Automatic annotation (TrEMBL):
Subunit (UniProt): Heterotetramer with CBR4; contains two molecules of HSD17B8 and CBR4.
EC number: 1.1.1.239, 1.1.1.62, 1.1.1.n12
Biological pathway: Lipid metabolism; mitochondrial fatty acid beta-oxidation; Steroid biosynthesis; estrogen biosynthesis; Lipid metabolism; fatty acid biosynthesis
The gene coding this protein: HSD17B8
Entry's localization field: Mitochondrion matrix
Keywords carried by this UniProt record: Fatty acid biosynthesis, Fatty acid metabolism, Lipid biosynthesis, Lipid metabolism, Mitochondrion, NAD, Oxidoreductase, Phosphoprotein, Steroid biosynthesis
Domain Ketoreductase positions: 10-203
Enzymatic reactions: a (3R)-3-hydroxyacyl-CoA + NAD(+) = a 3-oxoacyl-CoA + NADH + H(+); testosterone + NAD(+) = androst-4-ene-3,17-dione + NADH + H(+); 17beta-hydroxy-5alpha-androstan-3-one + NAD(+) = 5alpha-androstan-3,17-dione + NADH + H(+); 17beta-estradiol + NAD(+) = estrone + NADH + H(+)
GO molecular function, one term: NADH binding
InterPro entries assigned to the protein according to its UniProt record, in alphabetical order: KR_dom, NAD(P)-bd_dom_sf, Sc_DH/Rdtase_CS, SDR_fam
Principal location class: mitochondrion
Family: Belongs to the short-chain dehydrogenases/reductases (SDR) family.
A GO biological process held by the record: protein heterotetramerization
Descriptive protein name: (3R)-3-hydroxyacyl-CoA dehydrogenase
Length: 270
């Protein structure tokens, strides 16, 4: 059972906060007392997340009206720096918790994958994480604050997947980037960890054909897909809090012990 309000003095920036795992993380961090800066490519979806976090008189109550939404394309040059400036102007401090969750898929077999699909996935999933982490770390170091950076990778970054050369490369890159940042920023009191979800029920996995989904679920020893809030957001809240104060550079798998995909020539999502 999580300690109540263990993030009550935290300001959390969450990218990809308008949907799926990013939204679930935003809800969970707010429930533990954090003020949340919810960022998404889709500004209206980020606003909707903020509405879900609750304001005065809402069911969630705990938020105390301290959240805000931001529209940003994390892959755009200069956008992350601008986002951090906006967040600091809004909350008068840099975020002490930074969760890079924005991500996309553009699946295709190697022989048919276009350069554009390769570039787009790397730009959002890897370069976007780099840009947000760099801007956030610069803001933290220059204000002398400690922090916890959490990057959402994927188990696919560790084991690969048919039809996902671009996605697997981007997510493997996030693991390496995170480990390196943990080494560079430890002396500034900034921790950096990655979370590697397996198959989680979100709009991203809803795009998968039912036949493939059924097959994938059959290969998960726990027997079901993960839940964005109950499974992934729990781990992120732990990594965000001081309960994980001596954990940095780690890659935490949240997979229900997913087996390596063995379907011949079949694509399998995240
Ligand atoms: P999702 O429901 O599609 O949410 C991703 C969010 O990121 C969307 O709101 C999307 O906005 C936003 N986004 C996309 N491109 C962006 C950009 N350039 N700048 C800012 N925001 C952007 O997917 P999800 O399943 O929650 O996935 C969240 C993260 O977990 C991703 O990094 C994904 O790779 C990772 N992951 C997911 C699973 C899984 O099984 N679901 C497993 C392993 C890892 P739009 O809707 O406007 O595009």
């Amino acid at each position: 059972m999580a300690s109540p309000l263990r993030l009550r003095s935290a300001l959390a920036l969450v990218t990809g906060a308008g949907s799926g795992i990013g939204r679930a993380i935003s809800v969970r961090l707010a429930r533990e007392g954090a003020a949340v800066a919810a960022c998404d490519l889709d500004g209206a979806a980020a606003q909707e997340t903020v509405r879900l976090l609750g304001g005065p008189g809402s069911e969630e109550g705990a938020s105390r009206g301290t959240h805000a939404a931001f529209q940003t394309d994390v892959s755009e040059a200069g956008a992350a720096k601008c986002l951090l400036e906006q967040v600091q102007a809004c909350f008068s401090r840099p975020p002490s918790v930074v969760v890079s969750c924005a991500g996309i898929t553009r699946d295709e077999f190697l022989f048919h994958m276009s350069e554009d699909d390769w570039d787009k996935v790397i730009a959002v999933n890897l370069k976007g994480v780099f840009l947000v982490t760099q801007a956030a770390a610069q803001a933290l170091v220059s204000s002398g604050c400690h922090g916890s950076i959490i990057n959402i990778s994927s188990i696919i970054g560790k084991v690969g997947n048919v039809g996902q050369t671009n996605y697997a490369a981007s997510k493997a890159g996030v693991i390496g980037l995170t480990q390196t940042i943990a080494r560079e920023l430890g002396r500034h009191g900034i921790r950096c960890n990655s979370v590697l979800p397996g198959f989680i029920a979100t709009p991203m996995t809803q795009k998968m054909p039912q036949k493939v989904l059924d097959k994938v679920i059959g290969m998960i020893p726990m027997g079901h897909m993960g839940d964005p809030e109950g499974d992934v957001a729990d781990v992120v809240a732990f990594l965000a809090s001081e309960d994980s104060g001596y954990i940095t550079g780690a890659s935490v798998e949240v997979t229900g012990m997913r087996l390596v995909w063995g379907g011949k020539g079949q694509r399998s999502g995240t």
